[in-house]
Amino acid sequence: MSGVFSPTRAKIKERTLRTDKWWIQPAITFGVLLSFVIYATFRAFEGANYYKDHLISPFYSPCLSEACLPEATILGWTPVSAEIFNFALSPALIILIFPLGFRMTCYYYRKSYYRSFWMSPPACAVAEPHKKYTGETRFPLIIQNSHRYFFYAGLVLNVILTYDAVISFKNPEGEWGHMSVGSLVLLVSSTLLWFYSASCHSCRHTIGGRLKNFSKHPVRYKLWSWVSVLNHSHQQFAWYSLAGVAFADIYVRQVATGAWTNFYFF
Amino acid sequence: MARKINLRIWRGDATDGGLQDVQVEANEGEVVLDVIHRVQATQMGDLAVRWNCKAGKCGSCSMEINGKPRLACMTQVATYGDETITVTPLRAFPVIKDLVTDVSFNYKKAMEIPAFEPPKELVPGEARMQQVDVERSQEFRKCIECFLCQDVCHVVRDHEENKKSFAGPRFFIRIAELDMHPLDTLKNRKRTAQEEHGLGMCNITKCCTEVCPEHIKITDNAIIPMKERVADIKYDPVRWLGSKIRKREGIV
Fold first, then answer.
1. B249:A213 CB<8 A
2. Can you give the pTM of this predicted structure?
3. How many CB atoms lie under 10 A from the CB of residue B24?
4. Can you give the residue ranges of every domain in chain A?
5. In chain A, what residues touch B211 (CB-CB under 8 Å)?
6. Best residue in A2, A4, A15, A17 to probe B by mutation, most B CBs within 10 Å?
7. Is B204's CB within 8 Å of A110's CB?
8. Partner B, chain A 62-101, Cβ-Cβ below 8 Å
């Protein structure tokens, strides 16, 4: 017997004596994250319906495969073959590792999925079901220490997705100065991604957290102070940006399939 | 206005014990420690409970109230309405008697943390620091050593065997406090945090932050920054290379 049932501890047979509904939060997190994973997997393998009239889905941008629609690429640059080992590669699969890795190694999401998927622990002061625990000291979880590299990659993606949002201010004929619901959706989605990245713990560390003497680096201290303010809301930005990306993809897909019409304000 | 409330108190020692039901009077504005004292005065004269300041500053009356680690002196009875209030000792530490546990694990861990090491040439009284350089560490000085964070941390709460290799959140804030201190010169503080004090065991589920009565942002301001500092020296090849080419601040 280990943990709260160890021989020297108070003899209490319940795993927890909490009387509140502690299971609701992990259950909701589990449901929402699982839904997103299922939808994202479907979309990543679909390989179609990701572009329409200067709107490109964030799941497929940058579109680097030879299989990409020419107008969905960045200046026609397609360095990746359409097939790998005779397997038709969806353009989304080439870039998915970066946003996926960024969120999987994110300090907030780690809390979320360790609690809701792995139940380690399911909630505070609720005994976990595992007999052994080594935390993030061994493979594969030691990879979590690479979060900063996914953060850097995420910044590159943010630039590209912002570029996509700017491009969406064209009408179907390619003329600038037009704005549609799609432009708004991509703009909000990319903005939320910037907030998510800027509030990241690795960003906070890189920008100034690693310093010992703030007084010697007043600019970095100022930047660190601003990022620290955003960092308080990292959890919120994590969810909002996830919802923003998912909705942007749904919107582009619906427009691409013809189910929805992209309304132009001007 | 006084009313009767139902209280369940764990009574026993390391060999055996269980929850006992009592009814006790509670007055408006009273905290759980008040009603425990009333039970002790009127019904259970030998009830063991540790307490001292009754102001949320000494950290003595840590216990679990309806399953959550809390300070009994800072927990209003009214919070629970008509619900039965269940009071148990801290479940991560060996019980001594009733609500009193043996928290010596924490003192042993405290002794293992290398002390502050100022520059050798610094004469006592001559240390000069700017406020911006010490304000991060000051947050961690609010700790009252109630050990609620240590109690709730599943790394040791649910795995007794991890106690030998894991210092716990209270001592991670101590390590962070020293590592962020502008005058601390000890080398390898980051490396020992990871390799000897078990920083890598923490999976940042933030329960320590949730229970801290001083509202110290243990995870966001101490543990995660320390994990990032450890990544600088152990898991980031670019930073490592940079430190070899040019000595940079923070890489010690």
1. yes
2. 0.95
3. 21
4. 22-130+142-257
5. 124
6. A17
7. yes
8. none
Q: In Å, how far from its chain's centre is CA B2?
A: 34
Give me the helix-helix angle, B131-140 and B169-179, nearest 10°. 170
Q: Which two tokens stand for residue A198?
A: 């800027």
CA distance B207 to chain A (A): 5
Residue of chain A nearest B217, judged by CA positions: A232
Label residue B247 by pLDDT band (50, 70, 90). low
Helix, strand, or coil here: A54?
Answer: coil
DSSP type of residue A146 = G
* Distant-in-sequence, close-in-space partners of A139: CB < 8 Å, separation ≥ 6: none
> Residue A76 — pLDDT band, cuts 50, 70, 90?
confident
Interchain CB distance below 8 Å, B198 and A135: yes
Q: B240 to chain A nearest CA, in Å?
A: 14
Question: Domains of chain B, with CATH numbers?
Answer: 3-101 (3.10.20.30), 104-245 (1.10.1060.10)
* Cα–Cα distance measured from residue B223 to residue B245, given in angstroms and rounded to the nearest whole number: 28
Beta bridge partners of A170: A176
- Read off the DSSP letter of residue B219: I
Rounded distance, CA A255 to CA A50, Å?
9
